Amino acid sequence: MRDIQEKGLFWRWGMRMYRLRWAVTIFWVLLFVASAFFVPKLPDRLKDSGLTAKGSESDHGFSLMKKELGTSLSTITVVYTSRNLDLTSVQAKKDILQSLDPLKKQNYVENIHFNSTPRLKEDKGIQSIVVELKLKNQEALNHFREIKGLMGKPKGMKTFVDGEIATIHEVQQATKHDMAHSEKIGLPIALLVLLFIFGTVWAAILPLLVGIMSVSLTLGMTYYLTGFYSPSNFLPNIVMMLGLAIGVDYALFFVSRFREELKRQPSVEEAVAMATQTAGQSVFFSGFAVLIGMFGMLFIKLPIIYSLCLGGVLVVFSAMILSSTLLPSLLGIIGHRIDSLKVFARTQKRMENSIIWERIALSVMKRPAVLAIVISTLLLSLMLPIVRMKVGVPTAEVLPPSYESRRGAELLKENYDVRKSNPIFIIVKTKENVTEVSSIRSIKKYEDKIHRLPGVLSVQSFIDVLGNRTPEETFQLLKLKGTHDRMISESLLNGNFALLTVVPLSKPNSAEASKLVHQIRKVTANNLGTHVTGQTALLVDMMDRINSGLPMLMMFIISVTYVILLYAFRSVLIPLKAVMMNVLSLGASLGIVVIVFQYGYLTGFLNITSTGYVSIIMPVTIFCIVFGISMDYEVFLISRIKEEYDRSGDNEKSTATGLQKTGRLISSAALILLVVVGSFIFTNIEITKALGVGLFCAIFIDATLIRIIVVPALMKLLGPANWWAPKWIVGK
User: Do residues 35 and 322 lie in contact, with contact meaning Cβ atoms separated by under 8 Å?
Assistant: First the structure.
């Protein structure tokens, strides 16, 4: 970076913010009040999980099933349980259907029937009903409360409503709860930590204010955008977590530097300008590093990733803008009163006089090679579980067991054959009507090829339903109006389209089932058009999107981050080292997520229910967010080391001094982030919990092992080479 004494662009910007401090503050306060009005209303506007692969084969297949074969636009499954009654008896079934009569009369209900999926065990205390609707998911959500209200509760039975619509509705409710949870628990604890860090009320309030306003502005903008775009219902929790973490983080460094400059500069105006020139510049580069991670998500062509990208970009940008405009304006207004209303005075004095960070840096630099190898080995070992990571598309598992749809989903899995309730579907298109002999013959040949594939339990089409007769006999049967109409009503055929149902030997989310989807898609269908779809095919298509976009995502984030840091520090090796350290902390944190959510360790302590897999979006999301956030500490630490090196030219001394001056601040910032992010581990939605665990571990590793031990060790080992760069980069 340029010498801090140079009164450049950032210094002039700080002066401008000071002179316009009242106007800027009033503008942001009015905008905050306006946006805060819409924040509580946002969850109800988010009616899509985003867990689809738009434009993929599975997506086209789902559309064809609804459009051409007339499958229901949406369904709800109602699970009934009883300890005393036999729910498989004629009387119990009659009571269940009678309780649903008010719902059946509604014009948006297409059909109500008992679940035909074979059972895994003979439990007479459970029964389930499938309600087929003529409504799309978003329309069904608007009627969901009405639908539940019309469902009677038969005497002696408990009911659990399950299905995608029920899950999305409960995710909306869980999101509201989680937002309130983070406010009630995370914010008070964060305030206490800030009071301990700064020792004054004003200095503690400002970072929290920036974090809250960043979240409010982003969610307010998102509410407006829902009129044009349908974001994922997981967006608010991500915004809450990132906004509070990054907003507080940036403001913490800015406020700390302002207090330092107040002691050096002749006026508040000069202190604001110099804080903007130093900390403000660091926030600028750090913010762009985080934004790079957010924009990298665009390489993964999935709606949920696009939504998280939108939320991440908006909240990081909001935090940057507020830290660059509102914060210097407020500091200009508060001035020397920033040090008034003191708390923990004695502790503050001891902390200010402490030289522990300098001692740590010097101790580390006495044994740099040993410490660098030991820590790197530890982090690499934590990365090993990634090799055996299993991914899946979460449904009701994103909710805690106490939620109705989650309990209903678990009861269905325990009692019904999940392979047959979630089979692989193949939509076949023939050149002639499917009832023609030539079409029947072609479908039969294709079906036989599928049946011979390893891993297939059964294959069924209208041919099998009609007795697996010869093509000519099947043709004659379909000429009978009653038979033909029955096949259409069961969504097995219509016009030039027919449906094949493939039941795999393995469960839908398994690697074996995914492999079977790939094998089916390779089978030659001759003159037939085919679309392979279903839950497993959706997982395959989402995974393909991730695998195809991940190399470009990583290349983009790493290369652009390197270039920005190269410009910021005028060094070739420091950006390279920063990227390598980020990969280590990222890999270790993702490995811990696998250990907790897939293997089930510490689930009781963290109030987590292990799903046996990691959500398919988690590796990408953690990579993009962690890579950006980890860069914060690198920028703040190396910026200060660079300042000292420019003054003294002594690499070892500047490293020790830089860590002494930023060690307490980095640890404090990390503590705040750990409090904010950690509060989300104990929320309701499993995806948010997983992200909370990943970020918590990444921040802890980054702020302790990486920044305090590995970075000083490598600075010592590389010596003056740290600051080498070609002349055309240095500009000298």
Answer: no
